[in-house]
Amino acid sequence: MKTILTVDDSPSIRQMVSFTLKNAGYEVIEAGDGNVGLNQAKSNPCNLIITDQNMPGMDGLSMIKALRSLPSYKTTPILMLTTESSDAMKQAGRAAGATGWIVKPFNPQTMVDVVRKLIG
Amino acid sequence: MFRPAVFLVALVLSGILLVLSAPAWLLPLPALAALAVALWRPTPLAYGSQVLPTHDVQQPPVVDTRLNQSLDTLLRQQSRAASDEVSQVQSLLNDAISSLTRSFTVIAVSARQQQDIAQGSLGSGAEALINETGDTLSTVGKVMAENSATATQLTDEMIAMSGRVNQMIEQLAGLDDIAKKIHFLSLNASIEAARAGEAGRGFAVVAEEVHKLSQHTRDFSTRIRDHMGGVRSSIVSMESAAGELASRQGAETERVRHNVDNTLVDLKRLHDNQDQALGSLHDIARTTEGGIADATMALQFQDMVNQLLVHARRRLDGLLVAADAAAECRRALQAGGGNEALARCQAKLDETVASLAHNPVAQNNISQGGVDLF
């Protein structure tokens, strides 16, 4: 079973992402901010990561940069899931190494479709 | 109060000049004088959309100082109170939405389990059972029909066998005739042996043996006839039983076939009803899943509202920063700090405004956000 890490400071968003992806047959682990997410990713090999941008501690873009510096996460798909929708922010995400950008609110089926496209 | 007074004086002067029929070029003079006075007032410092007043070198009157202090106190108190209330709203929203999300999760899981149970009880298992029952009933009906045919065939065979036994009994009469003729022959041989005297004594012994043979033949024929009579009785009984069996089997087979046909029709109807029920369940499940997907999207408003509230709190904190800067600026001015104090205050305010410029939430509704894959 493939493992997905969801990083968001909102417990309800984590709960919704987790429920949506578990129903689609994935194992999901959660983290409340970028620092915890980075540690979770280091201790649990993940096939895909979905992260928010604005979080206390470490934000999403900083976490992506830190993950991309690790050999094991050079090519792992990382999706941003955020309220931020400006082109400038998306460009920053792309430059940091994000694989894609999903603007909240997310549609559960769309999220499952995107995840399946990326990791099957 | 200063500028309205200047304009009022200018208006009165213009009226007097008009009454005195002064030359027309003198009429705008008071207005120009008023404009000059207004332009002579120092220009306030621009601060984004807000305006920071320039310092007045004169000492502020006591009433103004008290008013400023009251306003400052009010601003701080209300900002803090508003910030606390925003926190309270965040807490209430977090609690309520977490609870709602858990509830929707439970509803979704329950709906899925319900569908699985229905699928298990009405789905392929039930369909296989219905098909198997139908096949079994068809087989039972077919076997009973075959048994009925076999019973009829058995009856026919019994009748044929009974006829053959009768023929055999009739043919036993021929054996009796032969025995009777041998008996007469042995009698004649005995008479002829007695007539021959001593010479015919050996022949008399043969005649006696032939007589015994005819007697044995007759006894044997009688025993066979008795046995054949018993066989014929048994065959008649069997024929009767087979006939009764065939008759009963035929009636029962007809009844079973009728019942099997009815049961198969019922099973087909049950199967169709189950198909219909399964279809309805699938529709309900799809509707439920759609509703849950909509709810999942709608519940994400909490995250957006929460971020907006955090931003609103930061704005309230910005007001406190502005109040602090203004107070510091006033103190510096009172101590003769001048424009240097104003510049510091302006820099502080610029920094605060810059930090609040970016609103993390652009959405105005909860319709689905876009997806970009890089």
UniProtKB/TrEMBL annotation, chain A:
<feature type="domain" description="Response regulatory">
    <location>
        <begin position="3"/>
        <end position="119"/>
    </location>
</feature>
<dbReference type="InterPro" id="IPR001789">
    <property type="entry name" value="Sig_transdc_resp-reg_receiver"/>
</dbReference>
<dbReference type="InterPro" id="IPR011006">
    <property type="entry name" value="CheY-like_superfamily"/>
</dbReference>
<keyword id="KW-0597">Phosphoprotein</keyword>
<dbReference type="InterPro" id="IPR050595">
    <property type="entry name" value="Bact_response_regulator"/>
</dbReference>
<feature type="modified residue" description="4-aspartylphosphate">
    <location>
        <position position="52"/>
    </location>
</feature>
<protein>
    <submittedName>
        <fullName>Transcriptional regulator</fullName>
    </submittedName>
</protein>
<dbReference type="Pfam" id="PF00072">
    <property type="entry name" value="Response_reg"/>
</dbReference>
From TrEMBL, chain B:
<feature type="domain" description="Methyl-accepting transducer">
    <location>
        <begin position="96"/>
        <end position="235"/>
    </location>
</feature>
<dbReference type="Pfam" id="PF00015">
    <property type="entry name" value="MCPsignal"/>
</dbReference>
<protein>
    <submittedName>
        <fullName>Trichloroethylene chemotactic transducer CttP</fullName>
    </submittedName>
</protein>
<dbReference type="InterPro" id="IPR004089">
    <property type="entry name" value="MCPsignal_dom"/>
</dbReference>
<keyword id="KW-0807">Transducer</keyword>
